[in-house]
Amino acid sequence: MFLNDTHLRTQSTWVDQLLNWYDIHKRDFPWRRDISTYRTWICEVMSQQTTMAVVVPRFESFVKTLPTVKALAEASDDLLRELWAGLGYYARARNLRAGARYIVSECAGQFPNSFEAWLNVPGVGPYTASVISSICFNIPKGCVDGNVIRVIARLSACDSLELWSDAGRKAVQETVDACIAQNRPGDFNQAMMELGATVCQKQSPDCLHCPVQRHCLANQRAIIKGCPSNKPRKSFVDVDLTALHISGPFAQANAVHSAAHVANLLLVERGQGFLTGTVGFLLADSKQHIAVLGFLRDHPLVESCSLGSDSVNHTITHHHLDVKILNVVLKGVSISASERTLFLENLASSCAIPFSSPAWVSKTQAQQSVASSLDRKIWEKIS
Q1: SS3 of 176, please?
Q2: Which of 44, 60, 82, 303 is catalytic?
Q3: Whole-structure pTM over 0.85, yes or no?
C-alpha cells in the first residue's frame, strides 16, 4: 500500500495532541463563535476556493441579511448576486439557494441530521456533508481536502503521485475515518484543516510549532518538502471572447426632467460559459464573434461599432481568457424601449447568444452591479 498509516491508526496520542493544540490556537471565525447548522453550511460553501480574508465580511453580511434557510430559499436573484459579490464561482450561491428550497419543501424546513441525508441536498457533495454532519451532529465522518491530504501525506511520509488520484483520496478518507476522534469529530476535522492551513503549509511548513511533529514520518526522514508530490497540473486552455459594451443616450424612465439623458449601458444575466447566471457584459465566444460583427454593423439602430485597442486577460478554472471589447453605440434618444427589446431579441437569436434579464443602467449603476473579477477588468478598460 502506498500510504503507510499504521502508526496513525494504532496510536491515539497524536489525535489528543492535535485537539489540545486546536483548543488553544484555532482561529477566531464568526461561525465558530455561534455554531449552527445553517451558519456552518453557509461558511463551508463560501470557503470553497476562496480565502478567509474575503469570506469573513461576506459571511457576516450574508447571514445578517438572510438569517434563516427560509429567507435564503426566498432570496431574489438580485439580492443573491449582491450578497455574493466578490466571492466568485457564483454557481455556489445558486446551489445554496437550490439546497435551501429543497430543505424548505422536502424537509419541512428541518435540516437533515445525517451524512447520507445531506447528500440528497442539491449542491452538497461528500466533503460538505462530512463538514456539516461532523460539526453539527457529532457524526464521525472525516473531511478530506487539500490541506488534509498534505497533513496525512507528511505524517505517513507518502510522496506518491497516486495520492492525488481517486484511489489516493479514498485511501486518505479511510485513514481519517479510522483515526477521527469519536467524541469530537467536528473539532478533529477542523483541527486537521487548521493544521494544514496555518502550520503544515505547502511551501513553508512550521515544523517547530507542529503539535504532532513526533508522529511525522516525513519530518523524521527529512523529506517534508517532497511530501506530498506536487499535484499534477491541468493544462490551461486558451479562450478568445468578445465583451459587448453596448450603450446609448436613452432617456431614463424615472428621470426628474424630461430632457435628462444618460449614457445607458447594457448588462445582462448570462446564459452560457464560465459565468452562467451572473450579471455583467454580454460575452460572445470566437464562433459567435463574426456573426455579432455582421449583425451589429448592418443594424439600422447601431450608430457605431468598433473594437477597443486593449484586450482583457483573465484566468478562470484552468482557462486563459483573452477578451476583446467591442464598443457599440446605439442611435440617440429617439429609440423606443420596444425597439431596444426587439434589437436584443434579434441579437440573441441571430448570433446564438443566450442571455436574460437585460437592463439598461447608468455608469454609476453599472459600476455597482458588475461583480465578477472579469467584469471589473472590462469595466476598468471602458471607464
Answers
A1: helix
A2: 44
A3: no
